Amino acid sequence: MAIGYLNERTQKIINMVLTRSSTLSIQEITGELSVSERTVYNELDKANNWLRMKKLPELQNVRGKLQPFTEEEKAQFDSVMQQEQLQDDYIFTPTERTQIIVCQMIVCEEPVYVEDLMNSCLVSRNTIFTDLQSVISRIHAYQLGLGYEKKRGYWIDGDPIRIRAIFFLYFNMMEHLLASGKLNFLRMDEIKPYLKLLEDIERELGVNYVRGDMVALAAMLPVMKRGDEKLYFSDVSVEKIKDSKEYNVVRRYFSELEDTEQIYLTLHFLGGRLVSYSREEADKAENESILEIAKNLVAEFERRACVIFEQKEDLIKNLYQHITSSIYRYRFGIQIGNTMAEDIKREYLYIFDTVRAAVQVLEQQIGLQISDSEVAYLALHFGANLENAKQDEHELRILVVCMNGVATGNMISHELKRILPRAKVVGVVSVSDMVNPHNICDIIIASAKVKALVPVIIVNPILNDFDRKNILRHPLIRSRYGFVDLDALFKAVRKYVYTEKHTEFKHELEKFFIRQREEKQSLLNPNVWQLTDFLTEDRIIFLERDGTKRGEMRSDHDENIPRWRRALYNTSSILVERGSINDNYVECIIKRLIEAGPYMFVTDDLVLAHAKPENGVNHLDFSIGIAPEGILFECEKRARIVFCLAVEDQQKHIGILRDIRKVLAKTTQIDELVKAKTAYQVCEIIRCSLKDK
Amino acid sequence: MDRMTQKIRTIMCCCGNGVGTSLIMQMTVEEALESLGMMGINVIFGPLSDISEGRADLFVVSQELLKSINKLPAIGLADLMDSDMAAEQLRKVLEIG
Predict the structure, then answer these.
(1) Residue range A638-649, pLDDT digits in tens
(2) Of A460, A597, A603, which has the smallest distance from its Cβ to B81's Cβ?
(3) Rounded to the nearest 5 degrees, what angle is found at the Cα of A301, between the Cα atoms of B13 and A272?
(4) A297, A450, A602, A637: best mutation site toward chain B, by most B Cβ within 10 Å?
(5) CATH no. of A397-474
(6) How many CB pairs under 8 A join A and B?
(7) CA-CA distances (angstroms) from residue A344 to A168, A335, A356, A380?
(8) CATH number, domain A531-692, options 3.40.605.10, 3.40.930.10, 3.60.20.30, 3.40.190.10
(9) Are A657 and B27 an interchain contact pair (Cβ–Cβ within 8 Å)?
(10) Which ipTM score applies to this complex?
């Protein structure tokens, strides 16, 4: 490298030393610049060459530490540096280096060796080796590998179509580097004629493809020309492609290409991203089914997101055009990844998730999985139109609908005002009086089944906690108000606050929750607990066949109690002692079991002994009775596990139940569990199998 | 399949207390629907006493309780955690292939 000027990195090191009054270690520099030690030493050599040339004091390296300059020395620098017009020499980021390496290996005709990579990335050998590691892990995600042979140099190994796809992805990401001419492994002189041909094709087809894609394609053409890669098209309707006018044009311009390569190139024209859509394309109604897909997607999105698009026709048209071209991408995998996918996912998570869910319709229809990056494209279409959708401008309008009389309806309306103080109840009507409700409301809350264009939440005539939660959990309401009912909260705590502080306190509360919402805190995550949150040895008890605790003599006075009740008493006594439940809860469980039969047997082996929260639960808890020989219940079922669950509300124990489904559902799992000799072993078994899942 | 989802939009799982077993069934049914590739069906849960016409299009209870449901579309699960079995039963009700 020429020494007439300093590159940015060398410059940076000198500056680091200049600004210090103490020593600067090599490690600090490697950390700061994210390069290897070797690279730093190279830089130091370069720096000193340059400094010598400029007759400036050199950098002194004493046992891995650069010595600071004296004030006089620094003054010398100042005068020289001012005259120095610094040449901009770009330093690639590690990610950029990875992309360069991958692309270089794919398109270079000559064998690629470490030295070549050093030249195009401007880093040392060691840095390249580190980069190669990250290349391997990155391409591994696309089922590709890295190959090396002495004669052949490095190459990317795997399905050629996929290899090319990753090239297009990375090439796109490096657009800014290309624009400023930093990709020196590309032979622009070789690419330009191809680019011109491709542009001619564009013109002839009367479409305008995204510029970066065309350059990438031009860069790929030498590879295609070699024709030594076997392209295999899965699921090909090759005939249909050959019928297209794109194919004919491609054939004319690139007659020297192999047949499969011609098809491959055609696919790019068929599936490319267009800058603009020509009108005639849209009129061509040859693909009714795609139009259908687009409509379904919009309908599904509206349903899930609870919005109504105002310019639905436009959206459907855009989607139709997008899908028409991208369906080739879905089918043939000629492109992977979307340079914007991650950004879209991060910035528009809600839209992305909704589209992801809605796209399942499309997946079913075409029988193909659609990648996240494609979903991201679709999300953009929806997002753009969502801006125009009716939203938020006015308050949420709720219509209450009830079966006949409006008395219950009025009660519901009253409740709604309490739990959703900022929403507006526009009316209370009976089912038969309801006409075109979508004209007057955004959502309907009904105590009877109704059909409407707007979302409907069905509730009990008298709202219970479950209904309230259902309402608050509805996406439309949740998106507006979050979960916290400030007024109710304030009401609950106000008596603990001095009256004169009320306003201030309320203000503070509001501020807190608004901030929380902004930080996207998990307001929506209900308070959910896991099995492991409670799983301790003292919650586990071993039971004999007759329901007594293992190793304990049965006392005489309970001789007449049926064994299953004894088992329940013994298991639940743990919870009573812990204060999680009172005795009444146990009695209620027993009563339910006698009345309603064996429904608490969630499997043949497991009885989930529980009653209602109001039956005497202080807080969520559970205990587990292990009965290796089984305990016979009145319904002739034999439980090997008595799982006593103290249910605090409708919600909190959901995670525990989910875990039960995971680790206690199968007979084999129970077989394993009852083999345990100690409570500790039981905990370990459960914990291990939860971890495996 | 579109035809079917329109027919059944809400499934309600019920048990005596409406907090434990029904919640387990809800998970099972949701898993079963997923394995059947059925989307857009709302699965709710609650106590037996909440069962009423119009509350849901299909009710799911444990087999023993099936007889207590009159005149409403319902299925009974023998094993509350076996989503494969539930899927079989749902397949029949939903009339998929």
Answers:
(1) 899 999 999 887
(2) A603
(3) 135
(4) A602
(5) 3.40.50.2300
(6) 87
(7) 19, 18, 12, 8
(8) 3.40.930.10
(9) yes
(10) 0.78
